[in-house]
Amino acid sequence: MKVKRRLDYTPPPFTISSVELNIKLHPTHTRVESTLTVSRQGVHNEPLWLDGEGLNLVSVKVDDSDITAQVQVSETGMSVPCTQDTFKLHIVNHISPSTNKALEGLYQAGNAYCTQCEAEGFRRITYFTDRPDVLAVYTVTLSAPEEGYPFLLANGNKVNERTENGERIATWHDPFPKPSYLFAIVAGDFDVVEDNYVTASGRDVKLAVYVDKGYASRATFALQALQRAMRWDEENYGREYDLDVYMIVAVDFFNMGAMENKGLNVFNSKYILADNATATDKDFFNVEAVVAHEYFHNWTGNRVTCRDWFQLSLKEGLTVFRDQQFSADMSSPLSTRLSQINIMREHQFAEDASAMSHPIRPDEVIEMNNFYTVTVYDKGAEVIRMLHAILGKERFRQGMDTYFERHDGKAVTCDDFVDAMQSATTTDLSHFRRWYSQSGTPVLSVGKVVNSESGEVTISLSQHTKPTAGQPDKHPLTLPLRIACYTSTGKVLALSKASEGIKVLSDDLIMFESECAELTFNSHDINPPTEPVVFTALGDFSAPVKVEQSFSVSERSIVAMADPDPFNRWDALQSLYNEGVLRCQAGESANLNDLFSVVKEVITLHSHDAHLLAELLSVPSVESLIQQQDDVDPIKLSQARAEFCRCLAISLNAELTAMLQAPSASTYAYEQEQVGERKLRHALLMLLSYLPDTNAFIEKLYQVSDNMTDTLTALNAAQRCNSQTFIALMHDFEQKWHGDSLVLDKWFGLHATQPSRDILSTLTLLKQHPKFADDNPNRVRALIGSFAFYNTEGFHAKDGSGYKYVTDYLMELDKVNPQVAARIVTPLIQWQKFDQAHQQLMKTQLSRLLNEPGLSKDLFEKVSKSLAYEQAS
Ligand code: B3K
Ligand code: ZN
């Protein structure tokens, strides 16, 4: 299959400055009439190439002459002979939205029509130069039966609406030139929640959220989140909204989270609908974050867009960074940061260790949809965060202002972005740019020598990145390190010397750019041998790296108690837990008391802060533990983790039980104090559920809970604690919520992650559930996705049955929705970390997939890379 390469970029031979679309909606015969204003760029005689897939072409005219017979049509597009330099091209084609189950282009979601064009979906609607550096002004006329389609929506501002012979006809005009991937239309009947927003400069903007009938009350939180995001972007980045109306439509059938189409976002209903009875605290958090993310794209993505898809992180990494800043301002900054770090450690490090490892700006792509990854998004955001640390808040803002000034209305590259940042600082960023081209997770090794005579503390730093798929040679990267050196009583040592390879940016921030280097700290009035000194290098997880540093248990205890940085304090306990799991794996579960006494001390110190306590009491997930080891037997690891949790719960039973409280009398609200209380209850129960006598509390919690967070805490705990209780509560839950698809997804997910011996029969039964459907991505992700990603013992079963089950399903799903299939295959291609036996079983299934006739590009790219990596490694 065809590989596209970043370095092959050439500017488009033709541009299209305006597009007029006339779309007459019909389930199987939607008629699309398109009039394009085309201009040749430069001097050449090439024909005009237009992308088009799955289209039924009716006619083509250049200006007024019919050239249908002269065009050459293939499966991927058409070639149009043309002699003029500027001309109008008139195309008519048909498409069938009701049979479009891949959910790319125009499709039906329930009774409504909607579109998804990023990355390359516009070519499934009509013929076009479907690449992000062709920016055009769109005028769109939609028509559909008056009955059933009271709302006809498109990008921009509505300029006309009328009815004619039972048809509704609406015309929209978007004055901002945009790439085709931001095009959207929606038609259907909805409940609408409306409000307005007055921008900083006094312009009145109409806001509207469209949801399924009967769901209006679940849309108000999203609308308010939008208003908060609009204000925040004005206050923090000086960015205002630019159209007269901002619309969000929520649909139940959607391949991912949401889409930032200009003025007309389309969302997975999961990230819009939220009320006190059905949404968890995490759901509220996610709704606010995703609404903000799509809104922030209006500047970082829409006004300034990507030149080509290899530059995706230009808009995604930056917009994720912006939504992370926003979320930290709206909720608990520490929990927000820790959940981002967990995503990096559980998922991004895993991707970087696999055959799909790629730089945040990839070099080669077969199917672009495969590159909406944790690397491009989350590591991309970490790269922006590093720039933010290096430049500091003010200069970073200056750099952003320059970026917008220089590039508004243009399609640009990651290099253009770094150039704008460089203009705001005297710190040389040329070495930093390597983060855009080098893949893999660097390992930072830290050593410490204390000279008892001089009192000097010498820290040695070195960095190394293992070869990754397609990149055998690695170079040192620029690592901004937030450092601290202090004694057990909290006395801070001053940095006195930094060797070559290090730039000191401030008292606690350095840039480490070489393979190895040294720092020297002066201990003046303290006496290191008697007062132990510790050094930490990665406050706030200041670079996306793994750290290797030998810490004794007592040094970790000092860090957990005294480090100035909350991430370091949390991480010190995480590494103690990691060590505890390792000891359990080695059969030493009787030897954990030294660890537990540190945990006790730390939680006593922080007993007043529920948010922090909840984080401190969370044992690293199996997924993040896997990234700390090689040659992993996932079943043994999962059992060792469970054993560790059980021992921890026994040892801390008194403390944990004392902190465990039933929900307070106040009714549920998504507000931070309550969120902290529920989060702590969850963390405590996740440990105490290893002890059988917690069952009564779990049942009680389920009965008294007035909110989805506590209800799910009870179900999660029951899943671990007592299978009879779990079955009974799940039955009750289904009775209550079977009519509510978002809540029902949680129920499917809980079934899929249960540690049961006959999990595969459970899955088979659930696939036959009347509410399960292969063409509903949320359902498929809830059942099969949750199993593959999070049911360690089921998915990695020794006999390979879990792998086979998922593979069999993917073969079917690939025919319906290749994008979703290619997401769910992720855990299967990440075999590198496992022992030989598991690797072999995983590869056997990957080979079966690769041999499947008619495999999609999406699965082919991931599976073939994964198997080819085997030969190379
Ligand atoms: N830009 C979209 C993602 C599109 C994914 C295409 N397969 C959502 C977002 O990141 O905001
Ligand atoms: Zn995005």
From TrEMBL:
One MF term in GO for this entry? zinc ion binding
Please cite one Gene Ontology biological process associated with this protein.
proteolysis
One Pfam entry name = DUF3458
User: Residue ranges of the Peptidase M1 membrane alanine aminopeptidase domain?
Assistant: 221-435
Query: What residues does the Peptidase M1 alanyl aminopeptidase C-terminal domain cover?
Result: 559-868
What are the alphabetically sorted keywords of the record?
Answer: Aminopeptidase, Hydrolase, Metal-binding, Metalloprotease, Protease, Zinc
Class in the EC hierarchy, top level? hydrolase
The Aminopeptidase N-like N-terminal domain is annotated at 20-182
Task: Say yes or no: keyword Nucleus present.
Answer: no
Q: Which PANTHER family match?
A: PUROMYCIN-SENSITIVE AMINOPEPTIDASE (PTHR46322:SF1)
Name listed for the protein in its UniProt record: Aminopeptidase N
Q: Which organism is it from?
A: Alteromonas sediminis
